[in-house]
What does this fold into?
Amino acid sequence: MGTSKSITRELRSWFRLPKSRREFLDRLTFVFLAVIAVIITLPFFAIVFEVVANGWILLNPAFILTNMVGFAEGGIRNAIVGSIELVAIASMVAIPLCVGAAIYTTEYAQRGRRRARRWVQELNKWVIRIVEFTADVLAGVPSIIFGAFGLIFFVAVFGRSLIAGALTLALMMIPTILRTTQESLRAVPLSLREASLALGATTWSTSWRVVLRAALAGIITGILLAIGRVIGETAPLLFTTGFNFDAPWGFLDAIASLPFTIYLYALQGHTEIIRLRAYSTAIVLIGIVFVVDVIAVWASKKVGLVVRAGGV
Amino acid sequence: MVEAKIQVNDLNAWYGDFHVLKSLNFEILPNTVTAIMGPSGCGKTTFIRILNRLCDMVPEFHHTGEILIDGQDVFGADIDVYELRKGIGFVFQKPNPFPMSIYDNVAYGPKTHGMKDINEIVQRSLEQSALWDEVGHRLDEPALKLSGGQQQRLCLARALAVNPGIILMDEPVAFLDPISAQKIEELIMTLKRDYTIVLVTHNVQQALRVSDSAAFLYLGELIEYGRTSLIAETPKDPRTEAFLTGRFG
It folds into this structure.
C-alpha cells in the first residue's frame, strides 16, 4: 500500500511542471541519458531480429543433424561438429598452459621464498611481468594476424587442418584464460594457503589441491568466456582449416566451422537459398555463444558465493 | 629434569628494518600449555610463526639466534621444513577450513603425507577435538556450513590428524562466541596430556585459566616468563602488572 502511494507520488512529481530552470535541466538530462541507454540495446535486438526473422524458416532438426551436400543442400552438422572439435582441442591445449602459467605467477614466483637468492626473486618478478605483458598485448592483437600466424607456422607443418585451426584458436584463448585464472587464484584467501602449508604440504600440493579447487568456479568462467569468444572467430580459421563437407576427427583433415561457413555463404550469397542458409547458420552460432555465456554468467555468480563463503 | 620441547636461544627477528623480536631466551617444557601474552604488535604471532617456519612466506623476514625443537634448530641447514611443519599443528585466529567436505578437511594432511588408515585418523582427530558427535554422521557436508566454533574445532582436528607433537594456537577464540570459546579452552586443557601447546592470546583471563606457564612480550622483548600462577600473583615487572590488571593491552 505504501509502495503504491509512493509510486503515485513519484509519478505526480514527474508530471508536474518543473519549479526551476535547474530542475528542468536535470529532468532533461535524465530523459536524454535514459534514451541513450535504450539506444545501445538496439543493435542487439536488431541483429537477433534480422537473423531470426530470415533464418528460422530453414531451421529444423535435419538442418542441424545432417551434413552438407554441396553448399546449397543438406544441413550444417559438419560445421557445428567442426566448431566443437576446434574449440575442444584449442581448449585442451590452452587450458593446461594457462593454468600452469597462472599457478607459476601467483603461487610460486610471487610468494616469497625467503631462502631463494635475491637474483632468483628478481628473475621471477621479471618473468611475471613478461608473461602478463605479452598476454595483455596478445589480447589486443587483431584476429586476422592470428590467422596469418597460423598460416605461416601451423599450416606449414600440418597443412590446412583441424589441428592447425585449433592451435591458432588456442593462441587466441591465452589472454582470457590466463588473466581470469590469475584473478581467481589471487582471490583465494591467503589463510587457506597458510593452513595447507602449516600441515607440511608443499607449494604444489597447496596450489593443486586447495587454491585451484577454491578458485575453480572462477577459472571455469574464464574458460567459458574464452570459448564464447573464439567459437565465433572467423579470421583465425580463414587460412588454417580448409573446408570439409563432413566432420572427421582426424587431426590432419580439413574441417568446417560455423563462422567459416557463414563467411562462405555471405561471399557467394547470390541465390536466395544460400542467403537463408547463412542466416540459419548464424542462428545456430548465436545460440551456442548465448548458451556458453549464460553458463559463464551462472558460474561467475557461483564464484562470488564461493569467495564469500571462503572469505576468511 | 625434563628436557625442553622448545628451546629459544637469543632469538632476534626482523621484517626488513623493523626489529620484531629482541633477544628472546626461554624454554618450553613438553606437555604444558604456554601462553604468549602481550599487547597487539608485540611479536606474539611472529614468534609462533617462526616455530613452524610460516615466516618464510614473508620475503623481508630475517633472524639471528636459534630455536631448537627436540634439540634441532628449525632454521638448520639440514631441516626438512615439510617434516618440521608436520610435527607442529597450527590453529589460526580466524577459522579457515578448506572449501571442501568435513572429511576431506581432516584427511588433507594425512593424505599429503601418504599416511595409512585415513578413516580411522579422521574419526580419532574429530573425537579429540570433540566434534565427532556433532559431525560424525555427515562427514561429506561442506565444512563451510559449520558454525564458527565448529569450524575452529575442525581446524584443530585437521591439525591433529598428522600427529603433531606441538600445537600452536594464534588467538584461537578471538572470533568465537563465549560458549564456543569455552569449548576450545576445555580442549586445550585435555590435549596437553599428549601435546605441547603454545597459545598466543591477549586475553589475560584466558591465559590464567588454561596455561601452565606464561610469557609476557612487550614491543618484541620478553619482559617476564615463568609459572602462570606466579606471574599472576607477583609480577616482577611493572609493565607486566599493568598489562595483567588491564591498564593497557
About this structure: The interface with chain A takes residues 52, 54-62, 82-90, 92, 94-100, 108-109, 112-113, 144, 155, 158-159, 162 of chain B (CB under 8 Å).
